[in-house]
Design a protein that fits this description.
Layout: E1 5-10, E2 17-22, E3 25-31, H1 32-36, H2 46-56, E4 65-68, H3 76-85, H4 87-105, H5 107-115, E5 125-128, H6 131-143, E6 147-157, E7 160-168, E8 171-178, H7 184-194, H8 203-209, H9 218-222, E9 225-228, E10 232-235, E11 256-258, E12 261-263, H10 270-276, H11 288-316, E13 321-324, H12 331-340, E14 346-348, H13 357-369, H14 389-397, E15 404-408, H15 411-423, E16 428-431, E17 445-449, H16 456-465, E18 474-478, H17 482-485, E19 497-500, E20 518-524, H18 530-543, E21 547-552, H19 563-572, E22 577-580, E23 583-587, H20 589-602
Parallel strand pairs: 1-4, 4-5, 6-13, 13-14, 16-22, 18-20
Antiparallel strand pairs: 1-2, 2-3, 6-7, 7-8, 9-10, 11-12, 15-23, 16-17, 17-21, 18-21, 19-20, 22-23
Helix pairs in contact: 2-5, 3-4, 6-13, 7-11, 11-12, 15-18
Length: 603
């Protein structure tokens, strides 16, 4: 039997992506949006496929197994029951989903077309893996846990919204599924849309806004969402458009693919407006109602989330917990969970959203279908594209250096120069190593700042990020200093847990300390990212602060993918410095003065 080379795909579904694995584990992973520059795109991931093959030095003919994170036969009974009860809505949804499944089924054919190879060269066996099984596999098989309770939760995938499973060795035993219309993802997305966040994937903004409100609508929220041990998630259909009957084009109310990107139509009902008032118009000022509604939405989500997971652990019998699915990106809820004692150990996949199902489909195929031994635990997310020094040099040589100084430096000089700039309150772009897998910049495609510099949050927003002022910036802390700075003990390599900032550190971390005295923490050890750890250690030695402010290297776009994109973002924004590979770029005093004038005019 030849050694397997498995290509996992999330295709024609939001956050399309590709992952390549063999019996030793992951080789490469990347989301299509990083290459085609369209956020959350839902296309066939041709560019991502070509890139993971390039990284591996492989070709399409080398692929032995094609793992698709979609199974059209999954949950057939639940689908038919839904259609029978809600014929017009159900048939419209079925028509849309059938088209998507049919397109996904052509993946091998599309791959040969897109890569320009003969169809006869693509000899891979195709495996269909149910969406939530892929989520389970992505988290469990990377956790390193021999036994665990798995909980996956999102809007919906393959007509499932929650899956609870008992995982042991190479086996995944599904204990419970929840089905549409009952969905915690729909609950959160619908109310986010009501608050003006109608673009796909903007729920995390509402999580940030919630810190500015009071739980004024706690009683009303109890009527919208609950957990029942037997029935699972319970969503009140009076408040949501998921179940509208004749006259409503249901399929237009779900994720709509438009030129490869996703739009989200309104999902709240007239009844919702009767209780909570008129929806906020995008671009308008935030009222106290909006802040309070965000807070009550988040508080209810947290309560049901913890209740669901407590029940799941009781059913599965294992206190080590693994999670994935878009709702598992709710770091505030995760922080409450890990500090509650409900679980012992916690592992959330670095690409917990739908992009991560590509790795889950590959892992399920590797371990559950092919029966191969467990691959090693994965405790870092640097599985994307890396660029050689010569690649970076070519990008730097092509740069117009008017007003920008460029110098090539050794590793230690790169660190010391960056630390000096950070210590003096400068904004530093950091483009190093292989890019991160998942939605978070984790120190290789990051913008870095002094976390305690006066007004740094406002400066960063005005000069570079151009985003809502209520959104927090994340702290990266040395793993060994986590409990000294934050009220938490569990490592957070993938920035998916929010902890309270300890009182003694709130002023020192003023730029990352959110309105409710929390931070969406990333921990970093030297074994995970040697250069990044050494940079923070050097900054800590100079300032006494073992933390850096870390935000994604982008400006209202997908995180930068190439050194050319990094340099272009540096040049067009008011970033001060850029460490890109072995090169240090810095704007002249004249350009910095102009940047300050622009900032002051915005302020």
């Amino acid at each position: 039997m030849p050694s397997p080379l498995i290509l996992g795909l999330n295709s024609t579904h939001p956050d399309s992506s590709a992952v390549l694995m063999n019996e030793k584990g992951i080789i490469a992973a990347i989301a299509e949006e990083r290459i085609n520059r369209k956020k959350h795109c839902a296309v066939f991931p041709a560019l991502a496929i070509a890139e993971v093959l390039r990284i591996a030095g492989a070709s399409a003919s080398d692929i032995t197994d094609l793992a698709l994170a979609r199974d059209p036969t999954a949950n057939a009974g639940a689908k038919l029951a839904f259609i029978a009860k809600n014929p017009r809505v159900g048939l419209a949804m079925a028509k849309l989903r059938f088209g998507m499944h049919r397109e996904a089924a052509r993946s091998a054919e599309q791959m040969s077309d897109e890569l320009g190879v003969s169809a006869s060269m693509v000899k891979a066996t195709t495996h269909h893996v149910e969406h939530h099984l892929a989520h389970v596999a992505s988290a469990f098989f990377w956790s390193g846990f021999e036994k665990a309770t798995a909980v996956t939760v999102d809007g919906a995938g393959d007509f499932c919204t929650v899956m609870i499973a008992r995982c042991e060795g190479n086996k995944v035993e599904v204990l419970q599924r929840c089905h549409p219309p009952h969905s915690m993802g729909v609950y959160y997305s619908a109310i986010s849309g009501f608050l003006g966040f109608l673009r796909y994937g903007e729920e995390y903004k509402v999580m940030g806004l919630s810190a500015y409100g009071e739980d004024r609508y706690a009683e009303q929220m109890k009527d919208l969402l609950s957990w029942d041990s037997k029935k699972g998630v319970q969503l009140n259909p009076e408040y949501f458009l998921y179940l509208q009957q004749p006259g409503e084009d249901a399929y237009e109310r779900h994720e709509v693919m438009k030129e490869g990107e996703i739009t989200m139509p309104p999902m709240w009902s007239k009844r919702f407006e009767e209780v909570f008032g008129k929806p906020r118009e995008r671009g308008s000022e935030y009222t106290q109602r909006d802040r309070d509604l965000a807070c009550s939405l988040q508080r209810r989500f947290e309560k049901v989330y913890v209740e669901m997971i407590t029940d799941a652990i009781a059913k599965a019998g294992h206190k080590d917990l693994v999670m994935a699915g878009g709702c598992a990106l709710n770091g505030v809820a995760n922080g409450i969970l890990v500090n509650s004692g409900v679980c012992d150990r916690f592992y959330c996949h670095p690409a917990a959203g739908d992009d991560g199902t590509a790795s889950g489909a590959a892992l399920h195929t590797l371990h559950c279908k092919l029966g191969l031994a467990r691959t090693p635990a994965v405790n870092h997310a640097y599985w994307g594209t890396g660029w050689s020094d010569s690649d970076v040099a070519r990008a730097v040589d092509a740069t117009s250096n008017n007003g920008i100084t460029i110098k090539r430096v050794a590793r230690e000089q790169l660190i010391s120069t960056a630390v000096e700039s950070l210590t003096n309150g400068k904004i530093v772009g950091w483009f190093q190593g292989r890019e991160e897998w998942g939605p978070r910049a984790l120190g290789n495609r990051s913008i870095l700042c002094h976390p305690g510099w006066p007004d740094m949050k406002a400066i960063l927003n005005a000069r570079i990020k151009n985003r809502e002022p209520f959104r927090p910036f994340a702290p990266t802390v040395l793993t060994e200093k986590l409990s000294e700075c934050f009220e938490g003990k569990h490592d957070v390599p993938f920035m998916n847990i929010v902890y309270k900032t300890r009182p003694a550190w709130r002023e020192k971390l003023s730029a990352t300390n959110h309105e409710d005295n929390t931070g969406r923490v990333q921990t970093v050890s030297r074994s995970q990212n040697e250069l990044y750890h050494d940079l923070i250690s050097a900054f800590s030695k100079k300032t006494g602060t073992p933390v850096l402010l870390n935000t994604s290297f982008n400006e209202n776009e997908p995180i930068v993918h190439t050194p050319e994109q990094a340099i272009a973002c540096f040049a067009r924004t008011k970033m001060d410095c850029l460490g890109v590979g072995p090169f240090w770029l810095e704007k002249s005093a004249e350009l910095a003065s102009k940047a300050e004038q622009i900032y002051q005019s915005k302020a």
